[in-house]
Amino acid sequence: MSYLLDGGTIWTNNGELIEDGRILIENGEIAQAGSSEEIADLPEDEGETIDCSRKLLTPGFVNAHTHLYSTLARGLVLPNYSPENLSEVLTGLWWKLDRKLDREATRTSARIGAIELLKNGVTTVFDHHSSPSHTEGSLQLIEEEVVEKIGLRSSLCYEVTDRNGRGEAQQGIRENLDWLSAVSNRNDDLTSGQFGLHASFTLSSDTLEEVSSYLEDLETGIHIHLAEGREDQDDSLNQYGERVVTRLDNHGLIDEHAILAHGIHLSEPEKDLLADRDPFLVHNPRSNMNNGAGVADVEGLLNRGLSVGLGNDGLGFSMIDEFRATLLLQKLYHGSPSFMGLEDVGRMLFEDNYKLAEDAFGIKLGKLSPGYRADIAVLNYPSPTPITEENFLGHLFFGTSGNNYEVETVFVDGEPVLRDSELVGLNESDIYRDARKVSERLWKRLKGK
Ligand SMILES: [Zn+2]
User: Fold this and answer.
1) Which end of the chain is more exposed for a tag (fewer CB within 10 A), N or C?
2) Is the pTM of this model over 0.85?
3) 424 CA distance to ligand 1 centroid (A)?
4) Domain 61-361: which topology?
5) Using N-to-C axis directions, what is the helix angle for 392-399 and 319-334, rounded to 10°?
6) 310 C-alpha to ligand 1 centroid (Å)
7) In Å, what is the CA distance from 35 to each residue of 9, 40, 406?
8) pLDDT of 21-64, one tens digit each?
9) Do residues 26 and 370 make contact, with C-beta atoms less than 8 angstroms apart?
10) In the Cβ-directed half-sphere of 138, how many Cα atoms lie within 13 Å?
11) Each residue of 79-112: pLDDT tens digit?
12) If one looks up domain 3-60+368-423 in CATH, what number appears?
């Protein structure tokens, strides 16, 4: 099916902002992008024309690290839960919740998380899953919800950990291998996979070595939490006499395919070693603030030439909000209104995140230009001031919060998945009503009722 997005301001992310522009979508790709005069009308029998006048069009966003399984924790109040550090957040909340996820709760969490990402203009997600009570087949369940029903481009992985014993670590390894095998047979551009690992401090050397041996034959890398809390470094130094990056590197796990979430408590030599290995770092500032985890040296990582993208770590769904939080946190932490520019943080969202997705899915993504996949977000953003190529990031930072904008339409792979802010082909109110019932059952299990 062909579509003509007609009118609107197009942020191409290719050094150009087109006023009163048009985008022609054919066979899942952007066939043409330009001004209204340059691109011909689309005859009715050759496709659909969608009025985008007064709208702002951007490439769909990428979320480089999230946990869809956490979605149903929203509003959950657990008795005697007042964590003092990241370890207590994990033991007091997340490791209790993931244990209580059954197939229904995993499906529902993924479904709601995917919907909310989509409604924030996110078209590609890198998920990190854990459901130790039903590990086998859990990634397939998520794929059915997130990719097949909702239509998000998704890279999935299962969180391998020894925290529940070697047997469950083996189940996690098997689930990653099964999923990666399924992905290689699917031959589509909407699914991909990484090898999920929790974090160094819950992983034995035997498990790391085993995973490393599998990666030799796979065209993917690990997706792991790196030095999110001080606990990760303390454990590695106490047990193995080396810092986390060195430990993982000695197992051959840090390469150009690796996704490393957080990277907060890193020494300067560790950052230098990362720069040598060229992995992908993911910054998640809102989660870091919420957990009191610390502030990553984003500028130091970027200055070393590392790719540093943005994720949400399961907290919030808007990548524009994550972009904003990144800049606010760095300015506050470094005590300067000029610390890091809009362009530095814009690079994370508009260059590095797409680079990650292009590598993972093997397609061209992230520009509204001919030859790129048609993953597009159409925002209703009635700006009171001019939008130009130079000030676009300023509009995102200062203008697109609260009810100042709405994601109206989203295309993934050339097909509309959101129209007029409603899911295409799905009844949102039914889905949310069902989710509340599933949440109540999950919460009862968690509270032992
Ligand atoms: Zn995470």
Assistant:
1) C
2) yes
3) 29
4) TIM Barrel (3.20.20)
5) 90
6) 12
7) 10, 10, 24
8) 999 999 999 999 999 999 999 999 999 999 999 999 999 999 99
9) no
10) 34
11) 889 999 999 999 999 999 999 999 999 999 999 9
12) 2.30.40.10
